[in-house]
Specification:
Blueprint: H1 2-11, E1 14-19, H2 24-29, E2 32-34, H3 36-45, E3 50-54, H4 57-66, E4 71-73, H5 89-97, E5 104-107, H6 112-115, E6 120-122, H7 127-133, E7 138-142, H8 145-152, E8 158-161, H9 167-170, H10 174-183, E9 188-191, H11 197-201, E10 205-206, H12 209-218, E11 223-227, H13 233-239, E12 244-247, H14 262-271, H15 280-297
Parallel strand pairs: 1-2, 1-3, 3-4, 5-6, 5-7, 7-8, 9-10, 9-11, 11-12
Helix pairs in contact: 1-14, 3-4, 4-15
The structure holds 1,3-dihydroxyacetonephosphate (13P) and iron/sulfur cluster.
Length: about 300
């Protein structure tokens, strides 16, 4: 299967990108695995004619925003993100009508049409940098209330919230972390900024998924409790042999990130199904918000 997929990728001049939460067999055959920011930058820079995006819908949309001339394939049309579904352009427009004018910072985990209404995008890797780059005293951050509250700890700007969250990260409690620490005394606890603020407060570091991989590789510690989706355990173990990694909670599973199978990838490469294309009237304003972010983070 892997050989057939790699052959078709070559024939189609396609690149395969996979998020760090994807199943091991998908990460193994991808050209690049990474966090949302790394994958966005790679999608913007590639010379390939086609991008097979192994992640969720908003990630394929971001690739389409950045590379309108490329064919972007999402091998499973139903791989979505419940947090991205917690905001719509209609709801954001309604909120903006009743809010004093201020910049809107939108997490990439959002629909393209919401990015199109935003000043700038951010990811978990650059949210603090993005917020602090704005020449403003107040801003609205959408759609993740946890990322917004965690970012507010690192800025003097007043951040107004959108009441969305990632159900997978919001599920992790202080009690779960205490239980994991009791089971693994001395292990370092790393949390994702999509976790609740009270969970991030007790973490040794709060980082994006790739930030966690770099942190664990560079740290003197040898054991880590990992406060993010359990799929990250695979690249951690692969890239950092000799260190031990424990999930902060077995509950942290994102079903959408587990939908794509090698069969789905083969099928979409054969018949070019699963194309994701953002219409130009949405793409152009969304591109401005995404490009501002990428220019800041390069
Ligand atoms: P990052 O890999 O950018 O940290 O994103 C986490 C996530 O939830 C993606 O859906
Ligand atoms: Fe969305 Fe959370 Fe799943 Fe990431 S882990 S795709 S934010 S639901």
């Amino acid at each position: 299967m892997q050989a057939r997929i790699r052959k078709l990728l070559k024939q189609r001049n396609a690149i395969m990108l996979a998020h760090n939460y994807q199943p091991p067999e998908i990460q193994e055959m991808a050209d690049l695995c990474g966090d949302s920011l790394e994958l966005s930058i790679r999608a913007a820079d590639t010379d390939a004619e086609m991008i097979v995006f192994c992640g969720v819908h908003f990630m394929a949309e971001t690739a389409s925003i950045l590379s309108p001339d490329k064919t972007v394939l999402l091998p499973r049309a139903d791989a979505g993100c419940p947090m991205a579904d917690m905001i719509t352009p209609v709801a954001l427009s309604a909120r903006l009508r009743t809010t004093p004018e201020m910049p809107v910072v939108t997490y990439v985990n959002s629909p393209a049409a919401v990015k199109a209404l935003s000043t700038i995008c951010c990811t978990s890797a650059n949210a603090v940098e993005v917020v602090n780059s704005l020449d403003t005293d107040e801003l609205l951050m959408t759609p993740d209330r946890n990322l917004a509250r965690n970012t507010a700890r690192h800025t003097t700007r007043k951040i107004h919230l959108w009441d969305g969250c990632c159900p997978v990260h919001d599920r992790l409690t202080v009690a779960d972390v205490a239980a994991a620490r009791a089971a693994h005394p001395g292990a370092v606890f790393i949390a994702h900024p999509e976790c609740r603020p009270e969970v991030v407060d007790i973490a040794d570091a709060a980082l994006s998924t790739s930030g966690m991989i770099r942190f664990a590789a560079e740290s003197d510690a040898t054991e880590f409790i990992v406060g993010t989706e359990v799929g990250l355990l695979y690249p951690l173990v692969q890239k950092i042999p000799g260190k031990k990694f424990y999930p902060a909670s077995e509950k942290m599973v994102c079903p959408d990130m587990k939908k794509i199978t090698p069969q789905d990838i083969l099928a979409c490469l054969e018949d070019l199904s699963g194309q994701v294309k953002v219409p130009e009237d949405i793409r152009i304003p969304a591109l401005a918000a995404v490009t501002r972010m990428i220019d800041l983070s390069r």
